[in-house]
Specification:
four-stranded mixed sheet; oxidoreductase activity, acting on paired donors, with incorporation or reduction of molecular oxygen, reduced flavin or flavoprotein as one donor, and incorporation of one atom of oxygen; globular; alpha+beta
């Protein structure tokens, strides 16, 4: 009897091993799969050794090619590395779906619908209007300059990475509501968004790869932390929605929330527009905009400290075009190509340290000649594009704004695609680039940024929700 049971158990385990490690026909090459965990163990070890998932993708590409097939838990995941394969990924509608796994649905406590067209239309009609955008950003820049001047009155030593997060949040808040955030609201929002940034990865957490763990060890696998942080963000947004619902009639400087509420009222429940979807879209705006803008500015000023000759050249350009009688505006961008090139080079380097937001195959498809089954998650690596010397990125790890300059003019290569392309192109690209440009131009016009004597900053990075430079200080003086 026992012998039969042992035999049956052995057959079952062998069958499980075979079924759980068998790859689909013509699936992209990659690490070996183990039962239940797939190649999670190998990927985890690589992540620890390399420090970032973008470098993991690079290491895998060196061994397996530009399209790498993996399996983490029950999820088929394909890493895409290299310009040709990444552009093909961006261009294929079959591979352009939003992930709908537990990681995606848990953040809004339910399912999501896709209403990007409404958001884009609102942004084009309001925030992306040059006058409105200039007003929003100019006020934020004025606040940053004021804060720096107050610090200069003491010793002039400033933690650069502390300058930008509140500004980034305030800009998004104005986009959502049409109003500035009060000090009390900002303190609450900044606290929860900092927790979000430090505790959540954009590429998933342990419970997202092994969903059953949320029932066994919800704290250890990160499920409780993930859900609780999102509940706090949604509660904050919900309070503001409730206030704006009580305001009758259109407002002169309305934000996205009011525009969406008016849409709900106009269709009277006959469409997919709902307050639940509104909360989810506002959450997306906060999650996408908070980290990326402030972290890119941190990268930018780190490189300006490490390359004082770049800072001086940019200041010479600002002085010759604008002088010191007025602050730079967005209208000055065409006349300040070197300042703009600093922005683009900083964006190139920060996005090279991350993976693009994941996509999902909405039906069986192909990529680079390989079979991609439906519901496979695809992780594109921007690093594979920006570090590809064959496409013109010479010495790609070096900070060099001149790579975007040609004959004294701005020249942006076709392979510069940090915001993606197609239907999933980042909706915040216009505001992000304008925001970073205006802050860099105005701060360099007003201040000199120098390393602390005997203590230059180090290019140390952290992998939070998006790549971030670790806190560093600078000595700042008025010009």
């Amino acid at each position: 009897m026992w012998l039969i049971l042992i035999l049956l158990l052995t057959i079952f385990l062998l069958l499980l091993w075979y079924v759980d490690t068998r790859k689909p026909n013509n699936f992209p090459p990659g690490p070996k799969w183990l039962p239940i965990i797939g190649c999670a163990w190998e990927l985890s070890n690589l992540h620890k050794a390399k420090g970032s998932l973008s470098e993991v993708a690079q290491e895998l590409a060196l061994k397996y090619g530009s399209v790498i097939g993996t399996k983490v838990g029950r999820t088929l995941t394909v890493f895409v590395y290299g310009t040709k394969a990444y552009k093909e990924l961006l261009s294929k509608d079959d591979l352009n779906g939003r992930p709908d796994d537990i990681f995606s649905t848990s953040r809004t406590l339910g399912k999501r619908r896709e209403q990007k067209k409404f958001l884009m239309r609102h942004l084009k009609e309001t925030v992306f209007n040059k006058i409105v955008l200039e007003e929003i950003l100019a006020e934020q820049v004025h606040t940053i300059i004021h804060d720096i001047k107050k610090t200069i009155e003491s010793d002039g030593v400033i933690c650069i990475t502390n300058l930008f997060p509140v500004h980034a949040l305030d800009s998004i808040y104005i986009l959502m509501t049409g109003d500035k955030c009060s000090d009390q609201e900002m303190e609450e929002l900044h606290k929860v968004m900092t927790s979000f940034s430090e505790n959540i990865s954009s590429t998933g957490m342990l419970f997202s790869h092994f969903p059953f763990l949320r029932y066994i060890c919800p704290d250890y696998c990160g499920y409780n932390t993930y859900v609780n942080i999102h509940k706090k963000i949604l509660a904050f947004i919900s309070k503001k929605v409730k206030i704006l619902k009580e305001i009758c009639g259109p407002q002169p400087s309305r934000g996205f929330i009011q525009a969406y509420l008016e849409k709900i009222n106009s269709v009277k429940g006959q469409s997919d527009f709902s307050e639940e979807e509104l909360l989810a879209m506002c959450l997306d705006l906060l999650a996408a905009g908070f980290d990326t803008t402030s972290n890119t500015l941190g990268f930018t000023f780190l490189y300006l400290l490490l390359h004082p000759e770049v800072q001086e050249r940019a200041q010479e350009e600002i002085d010759s075009v604008i002088g010191k009688g007025r602050p730079p505006t967005l209208e000055d961008r065409p006349q300040l190509p070197y300042v703009e090139s600093i922005v683009l080079e900083s964006i190139r380097l920060i996005t090279s340290r991350s993976l693009a937001l994941p996509r999902r195959a909405i039906r069986d498809s192909t990529l680079n000649g390989y079979f991609i089954p439906k519901d496979t998650i695809l992780q594109g690596s921007v690093r594979g594009t920006f570090f590809d010397e064959s496409t013109g990125w010479k010495n790609p790890e070096v900070f060099n704004p001149d790579r975007f300059m040609k004959d004294g003019n701005l020249c942006i290569p076709d392979t510069f695609i940090p915001f993606g392309s197609g239907k999933r192109r980042c909706v915040g690209e216009i505001m992000a680039r304008a925001n970073i440009f205006l802050i860099v131009a105005c701060l360099l016009q007003t201040f000199n940024f120098r390393s602390l004597p005997g203590s230059p900053p180090k290019a140390d990075f952290a992998e939070d929700f998006s790549p971030a430079v670790k806190p560093f200080k600078a000595f700042v003086t008025l010009r």
